[in-house]
Amino acid sequence: MAKILILDIETAPNVAYVWGFFKEFIQPKQVLEDCTILSWSAKWLGEKKFFYEDTSKQTEAEALAKLVPLLDKANMVVGHNVSGFDMPKIRGRCLVNGINLPSPYKEIDTYKAARRAFGFDKNSLEYLANILGVEAKGDHKKFPGFELWLECLRDNKEAWAEMKKYNMLDVSVTEQVYLNIRPYIDNHPNVGVYNEPEEISCPKCGADSSFQERRGFSYTNTGKYQQYACKSCGGWHRTRNTEYPKDIRKHLTVNSVG
């Protein structure tokens, strides 16, 4: 079975000398501290156990070293803006801390998937959770807004406890949002190749042939393919081999280019 990891990180802000509040250009010499990873949380898709590490009692390098083995086992990593933020930040901080990269994996970015598939006015995790009716992301009420990050940097134990809940909740909500939008992710990595199926299975969720309903045909410029609807996740897929025999295929033509 494909190993799919749901992941979210929280980072510390850059610290720098500045003269103004708007349109400030920060030069490298003005930076006192670079952005680092404060905490990370993860879970395997469909499992109850959460993983969590932060830098309240260990270094960033030690926290990252505990994340890499999970990434090494993962075939796919799901996160909200995981391709635009989380994974580039993790790779950068691993480089700085001298930590080797894990084995390759596929990234499934729910933020990019939502932007690609839907016409929502906003694609934040909180907005998607609300509009899809899944468990609300919630806020850190005792330490609202930036105060939570500030208090964690001040080593406030209560703030760190709230950060843990906040980080883990992000992972839980991301998983629910992912499952809701998964049927619409047309470039979703093929789960079936990891399952080594002996019969038709869904490439998005891996459900076996008992969940696959024949629903007409899919046509390309050069072929006709059996189409299926997955009754497990709601996704659509088709066979790889055309229904047309060789004597029909040889009469097919395509538009000439140039």
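(the above was protein one; protein two follows)
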Amino acid sequence: MRAWFLQSRGGRSELELREAAAPQPGPGQLVVRVRAAGLNRGEILGAGAAPKPAGMEAAGEVTQLGAGAAQFKPGDRVMGRCPGAFAEFGLMDERETLPVPGRLSWEEAGAVPVAFLVVYDMLVAQGRLKAGEWLLVAGVTSGVGVYALQAAKALGARVIGTSGSAQKLEQLKALGLDLGLATRAPDFGDAVLKATGGKGADLCINNVGGTVFAECVRSLAFEGRLAVVGYLDGTLSAQIDLDALHARRLTLFGVSNKLRNSEQRSTTVRGFARDFLPLLADGRVRPLLDRSYGFDELPAAVARMEANAHLGKIVLKNGV
């Protein structure tokens, strides 16, 4: 089969299309004919010196079942975490696999697994966001940011988002963005406090990184929660206002699957299936796609993502 491989050379991420052996399922695994796979910035930024199969999430048709796999059958439309997803076939752990709702296209389904599961982790599992609360998203026009906006509105929350692009913020008003702040600088705290009547945000998602960390803390309400999920600015350190953390009883947490095992990830998948999958199934939430690229066009898709030209998710199509 054909598969894309990723590695870092001279500080730059490079992609190579190769011939590779088709995967064989182990116990509890599914082989999936990949129809669409979503791009995720974290994978590109984290490329190592040794070549590795590229891609993290996919949607497609089940073709083979490993021993003990019984939840799905060949031909079923599924989506899920899929290491090496930029290939003709991929492997999924059945515990981390979801059925594709009938109203979703392959491209939409391929854009769901990683970003929407991260959003579920941030907003519900750890963030405890409730109807009527204020959510602040620093970097709201990223894939995770857009999905956080959509999910938060479906949960009944109010959303403030920051971005360096006023045009993208204007486009997100159609998805329910209550207030867009056109800035990349750590200068949005006063506007957040004003919009919330002096209270501050109940939950903040920091997609940007260390340059806005302190401002995110300043923007939080009493018993506010701060999720750290991305580093678009490349800054991995920041000062912490311990007095604010202490006096306002703040909660800081990270959102990453890097060190979680399959059982821990599957717990999030089960919660997502219960709470968020119905939102996708009935159309209350629909993945926002920026652009779809053909299988051979992956380098162009990555270039668009690295240029920050996109709004929503970029997807690689494979035979659809």
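Reviewer note on protein two: Residues 58 and 84 are 9 Å apart (CA to CA).
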